Amino acid sequence: MLPIPDALRSLWHYTYGVYRFHAGLTNAAGNHHPWESKPWTWPMSLRPVLYAITDQNVPGCGAQSCVKAVMMVGTPAMWFIAVPVLAWALWRAFIKRDWRYGTLLVGYSAGFLPWFGDIDRQMYFFYATTMAPFLVLMIAMICGDILHKPNQNPERRTLGLIAVSCYIALVITNFAWLYPILTGLPISQATWNMEIWLPSWR
User: Fold this and answer.
1) What is the pLDDT of residues 107-127, one digit of tens each?
2) pTM score, two decimals?
């Protein structure tokens, strides 16, 4: 039998150590974090993660005191509609037998459902990163359904094009509005207050 290389054994011990540390990082053991969130808040981005913030002697926003923050938060124009998007995808997958939506639901669920296996451990919104591409693809599929509905008359097609265009413009505008707190650009305290849309974002 071939001996296991030292590098692989070190990797195994490191991985096992990381697993043991995180397995014991539970609320029941008294481990709490102010930006912790549970999986049921992730689809709508209800509790983001604040990585850094400073409001002392920050120049660059034209005000006497600026705020510089980096927050991981989903663009509300996309994340806030996650529940109806998922409901539509479920209907298309199981009632209409559309395998494309089924595939996206499997990918989304693979990044979401396993976290319910040990709900006591510490969790954060950044674990939802794996769900994001599938949410985006489901929204894109729905936009495609609106634009390319079979036997659609020209007036409804034009209306659909306007609706999809307005939604895409809303997403882009919404992202641009949140860009300062996604990247740590200095903003005024008043702008910071307007960036925080929900009490759970504080």
Assistant:
1) 999 999 999 988 888 899 999
2) 0.85
Segment 28-34 long-range contacts (CB within 8 Å, at least 24 positions apart) = 28/120, 31/122, 32/122, 33/122, 33/124
Alpha carbons 124 and 36: distance in angstroms, whole number? 5
Residue 108 CA: distances (Å) to CA of 11, 17, 37, 93, 141: 29, 28, 18, 13, 14
**Is the Cβ–Cβ distance between 201 and 44 less than 8 Å?**
no
The encoded tokens of residue 102 equal 């089924």
- Is residue 11 packed enough to be buried (19+ CB in 10 Å), middle (13-18) or exposed (0-12)? exposed
Residue pair 49/126 in contact (Cβ under 8 Å)? The answer is: yes
Task: Report the C-alpha gap between 53 and 184 in whole angstroms.
Answer: 8
Question: How many CB atoms neighbour CB 200 within 10 A?
Answer: 13
Q: Are 70 and 51 in contact (CB under 8 A)?
A: yes
Residue pLDDT, tens place only, 55-88: 888 888 877 789 999 999 999 999 999 999 999 9
